[in-house]
Amino acid sequence: MDETMELIQSAHAGDKEARDRLVADNMGLIWCVVRRFLGRGHEPEDLFQIGSIGLLKAIDKFDTSYDVRFSTYAVPMITGEIKRFLRDDGMIKISRSLKEMAARAGAEKERLGTSLGREPTLTELAASLQVEPMELAAAMESGAEVESLSKIIYHGDGNAICLIDKLEDMRQEDEGVLNRVVVAKLLEELPPQDARLITMRYYLDKTQTQVAQELGISQVQVSRMEKKILRTMRKKL
């Protein structure tokens, strides 16, 4: 078990020093997320404080049995906390082009669904709109409502379940919690074949075997390439 996992376990057991150490060790991660939200009317230090709340929630909620790096788990938590703050303050701005594409996608999705008798895939929808799947995914993601992590999504047997509680139900894989919009931007910097592989795996939900068949390589090669590409993307993140 690495040092981060040991610190998290100690923090869960009530060790304040371990919790403070985790915050100190991950300050760079908070600033990395904060930089994506600069220029929206708030001081960087204010956004950092909000992001710190997300980091603390990630520390408290992280399950060491997950096969996922803590930093990968923490990024969406930090991002979500800042987005909620900006949303409540009316500061999140979506570009007009993304709004228009998201609106077109909604109408086309309904039309295709009626024609096909089922919900169209992202690839089918992108082809119909004559746009790239990654570009369409980013547009659809931008149009999604930003939810409060404290929003109650279920109330039964006297116990309320908040959105943040359901984060533990996310795919228990290192790559499953990557922010899709961030990934779309990172994909633009990858070689075409690498970008295609990641798109098929995480936007089109294809298995490694299916990807191998489309690329004309073995499943083992896909697995190795995928791990290498994701390592590169994490470093840039």
Automatic annotation (TrEMBL):
Tagged with keyword Cell membrane: no
Keyword terms, alphabetized: DNA-binding, Sigma factor, Transcription, Transcription regulation
Pfam families, sorted: Sigma70_r2, Sigma70_r4
UniProt KW Transcription keyword: yes
GO biological process, one term: DNA-templated transcription initiation
Domain named RNA polymerase sigma-70: residues: 46-59, 207-233
Transmembrane feature ranges: none
GO molecular function: DNA binding; sigma factor activity
Family that this chain belongs to: Belongs to the sigma-70 factor family.
NCBIfam families to which the protein is assigned, alphabetical: PRK05572.1, SigBFG, sigma70-ECF
Function: Sigma factors are initiation factors that promote the attachment of RNA polymerase to specific initiation sites and are then released.
Designated name of the protein: RNA polymerase sigma factor
Species in which this protein is naturally found: Fusibacillus kribbianus
